[in-house]
Write a structure and sequence with these properties.
The structure is a single chain. By secondary structure, the chain is mainly β. It has two domains: 19-100, Immunoglobulin-like (Sandwich); 243-452 and 515-885, Maltoporin, Chain A (Beta Barrel). 6% of the residues lie in helices and 62% in strands. It has nine helices and 45 strands. It has a 26-stranded antiparallel β-barrel. Strands 8-9-14-15-13 form a five-stranded mixed sheet, with no helix packed on it. It has a four-stranded antiparallel sheet with strand order 3-2-5-6, with no helix packed on it. A hairpin with a 3-residue loop joins strand 8 (117-119) and strand 9 (123-127). The chain is globular, with a radius of gyration of 30 Å. The protein starts with a helix and ends with a strand.
């Protein structure tokens, strides 16, 4: 019924005809110097009563663009401080050239103070010189102070809760989405302004034709920094449990025609460098391709812990990257990227887990010592020809990741586990688009090939063992390939390795080699008529997966699809409707299905400050090779997987409501979003526990899950106090079913999260930063099991004091954790640092974990389990470093 309603609306909207919008373009300049005037206010008014119909601000080149349903009796008025106001009648025959004359302004006992934040309809500008202080090391430190912008721990940038799609420097993307290489290395005082571009459309030939909800961030450098080569070298050393090092060397050159970023970093002090190589921005939505994730059957252990990684990461990491971007002319760009990371990580942790099954409650307890090794190499070549009448993009990338992990696991018995997991990947994306007047057409193609060899070795030891035995078994695991050991490691093996005789030890060995190829190719076209954009896309997707275990298994799949879509946009509202029509085929499973996935989106602007949107969609998807693989395999030391080989089908309904308010003059930003999701499945996952192993399988049984979420974010800046405050609130509920021993249980999980943040710099001598996360989770499982709500509080307070060229910084963290209804734990951590700046030199001395806390404990709930965990913390450590920049 819901599908029919949405399709009926789509059919109705295809017959809508509306009046055309008129576009008014122009340029504002100084009458004497003929230089463009940026951020001049341009208003479109009704000639008779002077009512404002539309408004905007000029861009860096003094240009503006306004739209109006009628040009009858319309005037343009331009305001700019220090210039005479000018009003002229609207002329549609040609672009307007408006020259302003300077005038003397007498200010008597009046202080004129321009704001730090201002904007026009789609672009918001921050004057970073008003936010930057001497205590900020890089651009990332300054972005954290901007109202409406949030920088997460891994460097991801969000504006009003939305992840930015692109980060530019002077309008160019040298990092290809890996923008931590910019934000963590570009000095804070090199940037003059930051621009947030809403509805960002980087493809020139699509501007004004099709809707996008992307948000981009553009950094504008100070004139004296543009084209300048910036070199930064840093070296540091210290001591904790062992000798410490921290070093980096960066080279940046960021002009409007050519940009370069070279970086090298190394440390063993717990600083995570993987984020420098991580692609945080997904790029513009028109160039995104829906790709199925490559299957990983034997994953390495990567536990999620509610603590900053600098507290618990025992690492030895080296990373290097090279980025070059050439602007060949005004329309063409060529970018090269190459990156490498080498990492050795150890971690010690453990947990007491409780699984609430239908007929029993299972308790497990383990302690682990993991040693992980990772090497990653990636590269990319990207060419773009972005003109007003055409768009060409050719992108080729490769990536290789080699991982291995050895774990010593103790619980009811002693287990040694080794996993080797590699991934080699090649990708190519091509998009060719042409535009002529009202018509746009093109073709895009995406191809990916991935090879994933994986090896698992598990050695069980049911009797107590000595440390000598532990070292012996670990040696066998590490040297298995070198010694060409057989699958079953027995006493003869140990005699070969050590010359000693040991009892036979049971060993399990799993090897899987996966190949996965995926392609998506489409033709598309669009036409804009009378304010309505009609689009049609048709294409083909294909995927071939093969798994070589004891048996070889392959599973091809392919689909044909077409997507009719319309966009109806006026000055105040936008309505889009689409219906993806699919025909999917999995020949090996004798599965074919034809279905439609409709969607609706409505946005309304009440005023320049208020905006609302509503959306609804119905979608259907099939599971991947991991869901239909019919043979059993061991995923890790205690998990065995065996699926039925049936195709898993998920039907999802998603409805969202979004409300936004922004007042740039008062530096206030607020959003409210609510969502409801209903998923229907034809297969149910079953988990059973027996003899120390979890057995995962799937059973044909229809069932549903539901999720509700409410999120609100408020951010307020106060100019007079140099203050930024923000508050984020999240409420969520998930409901579903679990299967155990053929008994179905209902479960419900409720979650609350509150995150206040404050950044306050009342003077150049003093700065305060406060951040807290307050969360509470509770579960209900079946009819009788209710898990008491547990509270977790994490607070961090950083105080900075400045005396001339020296800064003193003290950081304290407090963690409150409910371990159970009657037991809780408080943990206090503190760091201190002293920073002295002398010209281009920067000297730092610091001490971490002053109280020398050794362990952190916490309890968390998931839908059908609870676990109380502990993790080893980095000890008290002392560091000194020196940095030079020129």
């Amino acid at each position: 019924m819901k599908t029919a309603i949405i399709l009926s609306l789509l059919s109705f909207l295809l017959h809508i005809h509306t009046n055309a919008q008129n576009t008014i373009k122009g340029r504002v300049t100084d009458k004497v110097t003929r230089q463009p005037l940026e951020s001049a206010t341009v208003t479109l008014q009704q000639g008779g009563d002077g009512n404002i119909i539309n408004y905007t601000l000029t861009d860096a080149d003094g240009r503006f663009q306004l739209s109006s349903s009628s040009l009858k009796d319309r005037t343009i008025t331009v305001f700019y401080m220090g210039y005479r106001k000018k009003t002229i009648p609207v002329l549609i025959s040609r672009p307007l050239t408006i020259e302003l004359e300077q005038e003397a302004v007498l200010l008597k006992e009046v202080q004129i103070r321009p704001g730090r934040v201002w904007g026009r309809q789609d672009t918001l500008k921050y004057d970073l010189t008003r936010f930057t202080s001497s205590k900020d090391r890089n651009v990332s430190d300054v972005l954290k102070k901007l109202p409406g912008i949030n920088v997460e721990e891994n460097g991801t940038i969000k504006y009003n809760g939305k992840v930015i799609s692109n980060l530019y420097v002077e309008g160019m993307d040298v990092s290809g989405g890996r923008y931590n290489q910019i934000n963590n290395n570009l000095k804070a005082d090199a940037v003059q302004a930051a621009e947030v571009i809403e509805g960002h459309q980087p493809i020139k030939s699509l501007r004004g034709k099709t809707f996008t909800d992307d948000v981009a961030l553009n950094l504008k450098l100070k004139p004296e920094v543009r084209s300048q080569w910036i070199y930064t070298v840093m070296a540091g050393g210290g001591y904790g449990e062992k000798a410490l090092y921290d070093a980096s060397f960066n080279v940046l050159q960021l002009s409007r025609n050519r940009q370069t970023v070279y970086t090298y970093k190394a440390n063993n002090i717990g600083r995570n460098l993987f984020s420098d190589q991580q692609k945080l921005a997904s790029g513009n939505s028109f160039d995104r391709v829906t790709d199925s994730n490559p299957p990983i059957f034997l994953p390495l252990p990567e536990p999620a812990m509610p603590l900053s990684q600098k507290r618990l990461l025992f690492n030895e990491t080296h990373t290097a990257s090279a980025n070059r971007l050439y602007r060949l002319d005004e329309e063409k760009q060529l970018r090269f990227q190459l990156g490498y990371i080498h990492d050795r990580t150890t971690r010690q942790y453990g947990s007491e887990e409780i699984y609430y099954f239908a007929q029993d409650t299972v308790h497990t307890a383990i302690n682990r010592h993991d040693r992980l090794k990772t090497d990653c190499l990636n590269g990319e070549v990207n060419y773009e020809d972005n003109a007003a009448s055409r768009y060409t993009r050719e992108n080729f990338s490769f990536a290789g990741t080699w991982k291995s992990g050895v774990s010593d696991i103790t619980g009811d018995n002693v287990i040694f586990q080794k996993i080797k997991n590699s991934q080699w990947e090649l990708k190519n994306y091509f998009n060719q688009l042409y535009t002529k007047e009202k018509y746009t057409w093109g073709i895009r193609s995406y191809i990916r090939y991935t090879h994933l060899p994986a090896l698992l070795t598990v050695i069980h030891r049911n009797l107590p063992v000595s440390s000598a035995d532990n070292r012996l078994i670990a040696t066998c695991i590490h040297r298995r390939d070198e010694l060409n050991l057989p699958d079953n490691i027995n006493e003869n093996t140990y005699r070969t390795v050590t010359g000693q005789t040991y009892e036979s030890i049971p060993t399990e060995y799993e090897e899987m080699n996966i190949d996965n190829a995926y392609t998506d190719n489409a033709l598309y076209g669009m036409r804009k008529k009378n304010g309505v954009n009609y689009q049609l896309t048709g294409g083909f997707r294909g995927e071939l997966s093969s798994v070589r275990q004891e048996n070889s298994y392959s599973a091809p799949r392919y689909s044909f699809y077409t997507i009719p879509r319309i966009e109806w946009e006026r000055t105040d509202f936008l309505l889009t409707a689409a219906a993806t029509v699919w025909w999917n085929r999995l020949p090996k499973q004798s599965y074919s299905r034809f279905y439609a996935a409709p969607s609706l989106y409505f946005r309304y602007k009440f005023s320049p400050r208020w905006k609302m949107s509503l959306s609804g969609s119905l979608d259907e998807s099939e599971g991947g090779i991991q869901d239909i693989y019919p043979f059993h395999y061991r995923e890790d030391y205690r998990t065995v997987v065996k699926h039925t080989g049936k195709v898993a089908v998920t039907v999802r309904q998603l409805y969202t409501c979004y409300l936004e308010y922004k007042n740039t003059v008062k530096e206030f930003f607020w959003t409210l979003s609510a969502s409801y999701s209903h998923n229907r499945y034809n297969l149910m996952a079953e988990r059973n526990y027996k003899d120390g192993n979890f057995y995962l399988s799937s059973v044909e049984r229809n069932h549903s899950s539901y999720s509700y979420a409410l999120n609100t974010i408020g951010s307020k800046g106060v100019y007079d106090w140099n203050l930024k405050t923000s508050l984020e609130l999240t409420l969520a509920r998930n409901e579903g079913k679990q299967l155990n021993e053929n008994i179905v249980q209902n479960y419900r999980y409720d979650y609350l999260r509150v995150e206040p943040k404050i950044v306050w710099a009342p003077s150049a001598l003093f700065e305060v930063e406060y951040k807290a996360t307050v969360s509470c989770g509770g579960s209900g499982i079946g009819k009788d099991t209710r898990l008491d709500p547990l509270w977790d509080v994490a607070q961090r307070l950083t105080l900075s004091l400045g005396f001339h060229d020296t800064d003193f910084r003290l950081s304290g963290e407090h963690f409150y954790n409910d371990l159970s209804k009657d037991q809780h734990l408080n943990t206090w951590l503190a760091d201190v640092s002293l920073i002295h700046k002398s010209g281009k030199w920067r000297f730092t001395a610091s001490a971490m974990n002053l109280f020398n806390k050794e362990q952190y404990r916490y309890t968390l709930y998931s839908a059908v389990q609870s676990y109380t965990s502990w993790v080893k913390l980095r000890p008290r450590e002392f560091m000194v470093s020196v940095q030079y920049q020129w």
